[in-house]
Specification:
11 strands; 14 helices; four-stranded parallel β-sheet; homodimer; seven-stranded mixed β-sheet; alpha/beta; elongated
Chain lengths: 392, 392
């Protein structure tokens, strides 16, 4: 009889989150130490409900195809477990004699690992609890970048490459809303495909800096005078100097989630309100807004090969470390060189990443409405190449 | 001295419209009969303003990269020329001794060709005027499908494949708005990537059928009972039985263009209003809406190889026919077999396509909220393959 391991996938899905799932499954199977590998259906929800899928004997062809399939194959959850919920997770593990737990997710998932591991320690239950990083927001501490980010960034970069050419063909003011509540890394990637000085996005607004409506209108006016067109990347998370989300100020009503956060994704409201503002205040004619929406995180076929490889490797590394006897931790991607791009995986304590948020470093920004050459240099090797563009 | 040819690109851009531009340029150059090949900047606008770009001596590597670049390299226009405008087009041609005119666009562009050719004939000016088809809407008469449609359909199909998996991981009601004012072909393509009976889109609404809000809510209620989640494809052009666009009925104010059409694209309003309706009337919790927007027509890297090839071929054929002495026409793609897929190009008179609109044949629809197996069979070979998906 071998050990029983549980793997879960939490939070918003990505196109490479199944690479991490498959990496973990393959490493566990290869060790020969596990008789049962369980996938928790819908993350922590499946653990407390006893809802698992047996991953022990999936054949390799199926695993390979699964790894290349977007979104969380096990299902996901937005539940953010409190202490009582974590007690139920631990009880479920004890009931099944689960000694290895691997949780693929963001900073909340890392915090869940931390709490469950602490409770296990306190009750004298031997448990290995590992966090495997995942988030398109790229907002985990200690990581140069996180699995899921590079592919989403590639999607955003390509979307803006196309939309810049579209806007060049039929001129106007175009506002595109990009995901990211607190961190602007994904919105900044909009600029990665620019070739000519006249290419958009001409303006980039990230949540790291306070958003001022008058400055925004002045910026557009300036770009319109120069280029007679304007493509704008706006993070869904922009807020004013007091921290109030712009969407709350513009919209009559906003939906809030269980954590009291206003709903940002799954609605075109922010873009539409900004477009209306530009039409009204600047008297501009052709003003359009698109919200890139959920396509950013789960679009099949737009995958960075760097991202796919790293998502697999961080999961393998977590399994390997746990088998070497380290009882808990998270695996961080740390860059060692940009040209050529190299990175190493570093094991860090759960506390280093749990419930913390990383935002863009100051040197990635250029003024209040653009990214710096340093950001472009940083992001480019992560994208695994962009389509070639030729302009007359 | 050889002839002078003018090429223009009109209306909404596509990812393969430059394939048609390059196909025409290469065929004209290969004939050895042209000393000057001019591209009209921003379509008819450039012709009347005398704003051209010289395409005569572009080197082949640049042409090849240009062909693979999305959006209209010459720039485009939404101008719909009346008789006076067409007189100015003809005057510009006479001034430059232009005897060959190739216009890449939809049914309006075909009509412009028709009017200018008629005026040339009436004034005894020898002019060859050819329409080269292009539209993601696939609404041109006599065509099985039009260049630009297949790649946009591939984007929409992949977007829904990813979004279905996203919705499966985090269940809820998801509404996605797809382009198409009168024809539902593009919205219907949302269903092309479904594998399992439980895969979304579970509901598909096209403008060929009247949209009824109560039926819509009842449909969602039924799907939610069966699958506990619901992914919905909605054409931006849906209207009620009286022909009134649903967006006009739901929104407080809508923008209208020069032709009196309400603005459909470049806003999330329709999706947001439908989501609000579902939340209010069905008491549903997690209801989200995305509007696929301009990404559908210009996303670099998501290109059907069938589409790219055909976009090039229709343009070559138009040039060849004109050189054989046929003074005007349009080139239509007509399918000769579905398994394996084969098609032939047919020359048709401008009148057959000008200012007319094709919509989905009845056999492509199944009931009021789904597409038929016949549609899936029809659309599949056009997409050039979809990413492989594996589910647990």
């Amino acid at each position: 009889m071998g050990y029983t391991a549980v793997i879960g996938q939490s939070g918003g899905p990505t196109v490479v989150i199944n690479q991490s799932l498959v990496g973990a499954v393959e490493a566990l199977a290869a060790s020969g130490k596990f008789s049962t590998i369980l996938g928790a259906k819908n993350a922590v929800r499946g653990i407390v409900d006893g809802n698992f899928v047996d991953l022990t004997n999936l054949e390799s062809g199926r695993l390979k195809r699964l790894a290349a399939t977007p979104s969380s194959a096990l299902g996901s959850s937005r539940d953010k477990p409190d202490a009582a919920y974590c007690e139920r997770i631990l009880a479920s593990f004890k009931q099944r004699d689960v000694r290895y737990f691997f949780y693929i997710g963001g900073n909340d998932s890392s915090d869940t690992c931390r709490i469950v591991k602490q409770m296990a320690d306190q009750s004298g239950y031997e448990l290995n609890a590992w966090h495997i990083p995942k988030t398109i927001d790229n907002d985990l501490m200690e990581n140069d970048h996180t699995p899921g980010y590079a592919s989403a960034a590639k999607f955003v970069a390509q979307a803006f490459m196309g939309d810049n050419l579209d806007n060049k063909a039929l001129a106007g003011i175009k506002i595109n809303i990009v995901m990211g509540r607190h961190a602007g890394f994904l919105t900044a990637a909009a600029a990665a495909g620019r070739k000519l000085d006249s290419d958009g996005p001409h303006l980039v607004y990230v949540p790291e800096l306070a958003f001022d409506v008058d400055t925004f209108l002045g910026d557009i006016d300036r770009v319109m005078k120069q280029h007679k067109r304007c493509v704008i990347a706006v993070s869904e998370g922009i807020h004013d100097a007091a921290g109030t989300p712009i969407i709350s100020k513009l919209a009559q009503s906003v939906e809030k989630d269980a954590h009291g956060n206003v709903q940002l994704s799954g609605s075109g409201a922010l873009g539409d309100h900004l477009a209306e503002l530009v039409k009204t205040k600047l008297g501009a004619k052709r003003v359009r807004a698109d919200t890139l929406g959920y396509l950013q995180r789960c679009f099949p076929g737009v995958v960075s090969d760097v991202d796919a490889r790293e998502a697999n490797l961080v999961a393998r590394r977590a399994v390997e470390e746990s088998l070497k006897g380290r009882a808990s931790g998270s695996v961080a991607i740390q860059r060692t060189s940009t040209k050529p791009y190299t990175a190493e995986l570093k094991v860090i304590p759960l506390e280093a990443v749990a419930a913390k948020t990383r935002t863009m470093p100051r040197e990635h920004l250029a003024g209040a409405s653009n990214v710096s050459p340093a950001f472009i240099e940083w992001v480019t090797p992560l994208l695994g190449g962009l389509p070639e563009i030729e302009q007359l």
